[in-house]
Amino acid sequence: MAGPFSEQLKHQADSIWRAIYSHPFLNELHAGTLPMDRFTYFILQDYLYLLDFAQVLCLGGAKSPDLKTLEIFTRHALIAVEVERSFHATFGRSLGFSQKQLDNAPKGPITEAYTRHLQAVARGGSLGEIVAAVLPCYWIYGEVGKRLYKNRPKSPKIYREWIETYASEEFWKPVREQIHLLDQLGANAKGDEKRVMRSQFLLSSRYEFLFWDQAYRLEEWPV
């Protein structure tokens, strides 16, 4: 398939992304019928995930070849920290959680596996591999926000606000920056690195599906 590397990867991940878009968690969120305990579980896990995500972005910054790329990663890491402090913390308070409860919540099995995957790529992989691994989180949330924005529920209010956040231009600006960076790095990558970037992109996409699924099933450690 010709075209930008990002579009090639998106095409190869199509079946995974379509499974995400049709997941009952998102369908019920869009309808306003998602049980609140599942959304609460999701917010707690997403709060925990973002700390690792911000650290991964910092490691991407450390591998940046120029100031422009470094600026993107440091700014995005700060955004992730600010989202964790404000957006998720505000949602947490709305759901009845204190800051201490948010910070002390245990990671679910998929949250643990997904963040370990990202940290491993950030520590041992190239900058191209890091971007390929983090991009599905950016891109899928943006696509979900756009898809759910039309006919978004009026209530619960918290569901509508969540959708509006990820559909917003403010969120999509860093998404487009990461897509552009992937295309640049993919164009310069040699065969083996490009193969690994593809593998990281697909694996993170699968973890994104599992992250929604974990919340819908209220998954806990079996032992």
Structural account:
The chain has 223 residues and is mainly α. The protein has one domain (5-95, 109-215): Heme oxygenase-like (Heme Oxygenase, Chain A, Up-down Bundle). It has eleven helices and no strands. It has helices spanning 5-12, 14-21, 24-31, 36-62, 67-94, 99-104, 109-124, 127-149, 157-167, 169-188, 191-216. Helix 4 packs antiparallel against helix 5 and helix 4 (36-62) packs antiparallel against helix 11 (191-216).
- List how many beta strands DSSP finds: 0
The profile of the biggest β sheet is: none
Helix content: over 70%
CATH topology group: Heme Oxygenase, Chain A
**CATH class category label:** Mainly Alpha
Estimate the mean pLDDT confidence.
93
Name the CATH superfamily classification. Answer: Heme oxygenase-like
Unreliable sequence segments:
none
List keywords for this structure.
81% helix, mainly alpha, 11 helices, 0% strand, 223 residues, Heme Oxygenase, Chain A
Helices and strands, with pairings:
Blueprint: H1 5-12, H2 14-21, H3 24-31, H4 36-62, H5 67-94, H6 99-104, H7 109-124, H8 127-149, H9 157-167, H10 169-188, H11 191-216
Quick rundown:
This protein has 223 residues and is mainly alpha-helical.
